[in-house]
Amino acid sequence: MLPRVVPPLCGRCGAPTAWPVRRCRECSGRRLGFEQARAAVAYDGSVRRLVAGWKERGLRRLAEDAAELVAARLPVPHAEVVTFVPGDRARSGDRGHHPAHRLAEALARRWGLPCEPLLARARGSRRQAGLPLAERRRNVAGAFAARGAPPGGVLLVDDVYTTGATVSAAAFALRAAGAGEVDVVTFARTIRFFEAT
Fold first, then answer.
1. Is pLDDT of 169 > 80?
2. Is 90 exceeded by the pLDDT of residue 164?
3. Do residues 15 and 26 touch, judged by C-beta distance below 8 A?
4. What is the DSSP track for 81-116?
5. What are the chain's domains?
6. Average pLDDT over every residue of 31-49
């Protein structure tokens, strides 16, 4: 059984907390482009191996399984459209698929919402893995451009929420293009702290 991300949670970034809070230690004092982020499972060792197989070893069918789990554990979002964090062209080419795109399409089908590629990479960036938080933010600042966005709610999908830097940068691009509210859903989430401030 994969480890659930269970309440109480930070109202903003979805990190587990000792009690419900609007902003937790992890996201307090940060400018975030999204209204709320939620994930289905904690990114522990077993989930890390599963995601590595999905992303790096071509286990494409895992997108459907991940979507099934996300849809079972998270409420139906209040959004007009589902979109996804676009992959780096070189890495997506090497993999032959883009996990966030496949997850977004599978979730959109389950939730009866359209899935549209609203974002593109405005520039290349280094891999986020292994970078400290401040460097992750710099690495993705300005990395995304929106092709337009509806004035209502947008659900932004990615495979893993590590620090929130990537989804926040993508959400800022959507909001700059006119999105009213951007919420984030990921399959997995790194758990850093288990306390509130």
1. yes
2. yes
3. yes
4. EEEEPPPPHHHHHHHTS-HHHHHHHHHHHHHT--B-
5. 36-189 (3.40.50)
6. 96
